[in-house]
Amino acid sequence: MINMAQFIHKFESRVLGMPETDNPVNADAYEHESSALSLRGEIDALTQQQSKDLENATYLGMTPALAREFATRRDRICKLAEDLRQLQDATKK
Which domain holds residue 56? Predict the structure, then answer.
């Protein structure tokens, strides 16, 4: 089974004409970038939902159930942001 980093690496070498190497550093960089994009995507989606809920709460109020969902999303966003920071720190080393 080929992972996403390997797929991207092969795509670049075959389709874009970039040199194909077996450099594991490149594969790790692709995996880090893929993970970072995934984390950013989830953070963006959760943040958009938070904004919608806050806007609705301004006019309609927030039920206890919605407040719990809001808090759960907030906690998840904080966790994802920390994961992203750690991934970026690991990439810099």
Answer: 24-92
Q: What average pLDDT does the chain have?
A: 79
Count CA atoms closer than 13 A to 60's CA, side-chain side: 11
Confidence of residue 80 (pLDDT cuts 50, 70, 90): very high
Tell me the pTM: 0.64
- Decide if 44 is inside a domain: yes
Of 93 and 39, more confident: 39
Q: Up-side HSE of residue 80: CA atoms within 13 Å toward CB?
A: 19
Residues 40, 48: contact at Cβ < 8 Å? no
Count the domains in the chain.
Answer: 1
In a domain, 39, yes or no: yes
Any domain includes 52:
yes
Q: Measuring CA to CA, how many Å separate 39 from each of 34, 51, 79?
A: 9, 18, 10
